[in-house]
C-alpha cells in the first residue's frame, strides 16, 4: 500500500461519469469525481496503465504538494521548500504550466514564472547550477493549480495532451478531438455488437475511436512519448509489462465500421489515419454523399457523426443541410440509432425529427448537444408492438 499515491485525471465537461467508470474498470482505487476531473489512487504501474488505457482523460497529474497561499511570497517559499532534486537533475530541463482562480494570482503565466524561479533558485543554492527551461521537451513538466487560497503542485505524467494518440497525420478543416470522439461514442452506448457508421467522417477520428472501443485496444499505444519516460524513476520493464497486459485484453470484432465523406481529400486523409492506426481490416471508407445513400441490409446500425455547424463553411445553407440529414435518416436508414453532435442548436430544429435524447457537451469552447434519433423499421407504433 505504501507505493500507492493519489492522481488526478483531467477530462472534458460532462465526461466525469464515463472517466470514473473507465478508471474503476482499469482497477483504480478511491475513485472520486470532481468538475472536469476524477481523482484516484494507484501505484507507478497504474500510472502507466492510466496513460495508456484511458479513452476520456486529457492528462494524468500526480500531486506532490499542497499548501495555502494568501500572498505572492507564500507560493515562492513553499515551492522552494519542495525537494526538487528528488525529481530532477540540476542539469535537466523543466516546464511549468499554471491554472489560477485567485484574487492575488490573476495571471497564469506570471504564476508559472514565479514557480520556475523558486525551483531554479533552490538548485542554485544547492550546487550553483540550475536546470534549463524547455517548453517543448522538458525532463519534468510541472502543473500549478491555485483555487482560491489552495495551491496544488503536481507532476504532469502525460506530457502532451492524451488526445494526441499518435495515429493522426492528416486532418481536415475542423477535426474532432480524439478524447471528445471517444467520449461521445461511449455516451451513445455503442458496445461493438452492431455495425457502426460515420456518414460525414472527415479525417476518420470517430471511426478509429469506434474501432479501438470495439476491439478494446488501448487508445494511446501509438504515442511517441509520455512525460514519465524522462523521470528519474522511469521503469521500462514495468511499462512493457503493463502494455502487454493491456494488449492481452483486446477482443475480436465481427461487425462492420463504415465511413462516408463527399470530399475526396477527406476520404484520402481518413484512409491514411486508419492505416496508421493499423485498423484498416475493421474500417472501410467510401467516397459518398450521405444524402444520396441508404442503408444496405436489415442489420441494426449505430451511427455517430459530427456534421458541419456552419461556422467554418461558407456557402452552406445550414437549415437545408440539417433538413437533408433528417430526410435521409427517415427514408434511408430504418433500424438505426443515429447520434449527432452540433453547436448549432437552431439548426437542430431543421432536422424535423424528434430526438429521444439530448446531452449537453462542449466541442472545444462551443457549447453543443449530442442528440439521438431512433429510426424504427416501419412506424414507431408498430416497432413498439
TrEMBL record:
Pfam families per the UniProt record, alphabetical: RlmL_1st (PF22020), THUMP (PF02926), UPF0020 (PF01170)
Gene3D superfamilies: 3.30.2130.30, Vaccinia Virus protein VP39
Keywords: Methyltransferase, RNA-binding, Transferase
Record SUPFAM superfamilies: S-adenosyl-L-methionine-dependent methyltransferases (SSF53335)
Domain called THUMP: residue spans: 46-157
Superkingdom as given in the UniProt entry: Bacteria
Protein known as: THUMP domain-containing protein
Species in which this protein is naturally found: Winogradskyella bathintestinalis
Higher taxonomy: Bacteria, Pseudomonadati, Bacteroidota, Flavobacteriia, Flavobacteriales
Amino acid at each position: 500500500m505504501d507505493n500507492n499515491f493519489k492522481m488526478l485525471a483531467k477530462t472534458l465537461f460532462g465526461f466525469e461519469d464515463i472517466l470514473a467508470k473507465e478508471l474503476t474498470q482499469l482497477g483504480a482505487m478511491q475513485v472520486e469525481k470532481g468538475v472536469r476531473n476524477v481523482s484516484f489512487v494507484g501505484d507507478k504501474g497504474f500510472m502507466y496503465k492510466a496513460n495508456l488505457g484511458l479513452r476520456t482523460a486529457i492528462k494524468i497529474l500526480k500531486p506532490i504538494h499542497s499548501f495555502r497561499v494568501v500572498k505572492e511570497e507564500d507560493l515562492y517559499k513553499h515551492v522552494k521548500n519542495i525537494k526538487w532534486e528528488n525529481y530532477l537533475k540540476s542539469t535537466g530541463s523543466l516546464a511549468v504550466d499554471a491554472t489560477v482562480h485567485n484574487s492575488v494570482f490573476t495571471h497564469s503565466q506570471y504564476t508559472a514564472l514565479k514557480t520556475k524561479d523558486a525551483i531554479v533558485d533552490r538548485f542554485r543554492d544547492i550546487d550553483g547550477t540550475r536546470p534549463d527551461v524547455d517548453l517543448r521537451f522538458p525532463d519534468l513538466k510541472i502543473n500549478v493549480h491555485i483555487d482560491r487560497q489552495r495551491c496544488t503542485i503536481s507532476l504532469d505524467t502525460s506530457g502532451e495532451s492524451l488526445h494526441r494518440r499518435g495515429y493522426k497525420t492528416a486532418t481536415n478543416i475542423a477535426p474532432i478531438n480524439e478524447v471528445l470522439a471517444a467520449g461521445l461514442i461511449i455516451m451513445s452506448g455503442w458496445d461493438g455488437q452492431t455495425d457502426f457508421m460515420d456518414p460525414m467522417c472527415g479525417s476518420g477520428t470517430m471511426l478509429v475511436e469506434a474501432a479501438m472501443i470495439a476491439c478494446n485496444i488501448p487508445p494511446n499505444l501509438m504515442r511517441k512519448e509520455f512525460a514519465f519516460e524522462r523521470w528519474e524513476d522511469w521503469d521500462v520493464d514495468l511499462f512493457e509489462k503493463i502494455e502487454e497486459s493491456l494488449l492481452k485484453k483486446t477482443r475480436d470484432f465481427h461487425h462492420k465500421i463504415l465511413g462516408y465523406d463527399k470530399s475526396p481529400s477527406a476520404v484520402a486523409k481518413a484512409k491514411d489515419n486508419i492505416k496508421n492506426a493499423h485498423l484498416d481490416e475493421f474500417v472501410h471508407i467510401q467516397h459518398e454523399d450521405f444524402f444520396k445513400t441508404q442503408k444496405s441490409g436489415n442489420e441494426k446500425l449505430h451511427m455517430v457523426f459530427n456534421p458541419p455547424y456552419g461556422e467554418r463553411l461558407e456557402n452552406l445553407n445550414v437549415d437545408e443541410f440539417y433538413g437533408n440529414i433528417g430526410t435521409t435518416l427517415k427514408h434511408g436508414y430504418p433500424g438505426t440509432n443515429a447520434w449527432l453532435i452540433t453547436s448549432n442548436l437552431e439548426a437542430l430544429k431543421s432536422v424535423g425529427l424528434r430526438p429521444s435524447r439530448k446531452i449537453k457537451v462542449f466541442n472545444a469552447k462551443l457549447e453543443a448537444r449530442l442528440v439521438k434519433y431512433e429510426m424504427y423499421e416501419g412506424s414507431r407504433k408498430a416497432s413498439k408492438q
